[in-house]
């Protein structure tokens, strides 16, 4: 319908539809009714409706949110392949971190309408620009500890007296309050002088710093 409104002839419309169907592997489904299509096929048809318009930019707004987990994985792969074929700029809106980090070349992390950070997936994950990004990105979520860099810049001091060594990059922040961000599994308990880790390895529990 959109192409008809633009005044395109039937021949050109048919040509564009066939090309979109070929790209999306929908050639054998063009005569089916919507109710005869699977969820993944309907998503490909929706993408085909955009492709025939030959847009300068694609906008995907939560395109996989209504699909089951297995189909989401399949459609992510198809979207990646489609992007490589068409080489068209795509804006992809999603609340799913896996989708964002696997599909995007650049990620914008939004918080209440504010762009907290823009960067590659690796930059956003390894060098978060704000506390929100640091706590939001990562699955499972990253752990955050409040403390300060010691006056000589050699240690990260936590409440209760616990201290962690720092590298040379942190020495320029000597004396400043900081937030330590680390992934689950980055810490383990070990008795002083022991050759092995805690006997409780792999068992959930609590420990107290004194």
Question: What features would you describe in this structure?
Answer:
The protein is α+β, with helices and mostly antiparallel strands and 210 residues long. Helix 4 links the parallel strand 1 and strand 2 (89-93). Among the domains are: 1-53, no CATH class; 142-188. It has helices at 2-5, 10-23, 39-51, 69-86, 97-103, 121-126, 131-136; strands at residues 57-61, 89-93, 107-111, 114-119, 143-149, 155-158, 163-165, 177-182. The longest helix has 18 residues, at 69-86. The chain is built from seven helices and eight strands, in the order αααβαβαββααββββ. The N and C termini lie far apart (71 Å).
Topology:
Layout: H1 2-5, H2 10-23, H3 39-51, E1 57-61, H4 69-86, E2 89-93, H5 97-103, E3 107-111, E4 114-119, H6 121-126, H7 131-136, E5 143-149, E6 155-158, E7 163-165, E8 177-182
Parallel strand pairs: 1-2
Antiparallel strand pairs: 3-4, 5-6, 5-8, 6-7
Helix pairs in contact: 2-3
Write a brief caption for the model:
This protein has seven helices and eight strands. With 210 residues, the chain is of the alpha+beta class.
Features:
210 residues; hydrolase; alpha+beta; elongated; ATP-binding; two-stranded parallel sheet; single chain; OB_MalK-like; 8 strands; 20% strand; 7 helices
Q: Radius of gyration, Cα only, in angstroms?
A: 25 Å
Give the count of helical stretches.
7
How confident is the prediction overall: mean pLDDT? 82
Tell me the total number of β-strands: 8
Class derived from helix and strand content: alpha+beta
Which H/E pattern describes the elements?
HHHEHEHEEHHEEEE
Largest sheet: 4 strands, antiparallel
How much beta, percentage-wise?
A: 15-25%
What's the end-to-end separation, in Å?
A: 71 Å
């Amino acid at each position: 319908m959109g192409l008809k409104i633009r005044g395109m002839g039937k021949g050109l419309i048919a040509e564009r539809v066939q090309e979109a169907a070929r790209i999306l592997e929908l050639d054998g489904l063009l005569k089916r009714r919507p109710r005869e299509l699977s969820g993944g096929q309907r998503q490909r048809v929706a993408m085909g409706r955009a492709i025939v318009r030959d847009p300068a930019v694609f906008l995907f707004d939560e395109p996989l949110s209504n699909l089951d987990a297995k189909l989401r994985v399949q459609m992510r792969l198809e979207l990646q392949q489609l992007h490589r074929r068409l080489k068209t700029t795509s804006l992809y809106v999603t609340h799913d971190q896996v989708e964002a980090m696997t599909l995007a070349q650049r990620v914008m992390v939004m918080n209440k309408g504010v762009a907290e950070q823009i960067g590659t997936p690796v930059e956003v994950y390894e060098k978060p620009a704000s506390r929100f990004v640091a706590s939001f990105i990562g699955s499972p979520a990253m752990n955050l500890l409040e403390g300060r860099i010691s006056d000589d810049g050699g240690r990260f001091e936590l409440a209760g007296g616990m201290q962690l060594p720092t590298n040379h990059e942190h020495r320029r922040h000597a004396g400043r309050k900081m937030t330590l961000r680390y992934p689950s599994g980055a810490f383990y308990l070990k008795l002083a002088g022991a050759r092995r880790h805690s006997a409780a390895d792999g068992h959930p529990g609590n420990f107290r710093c004194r």
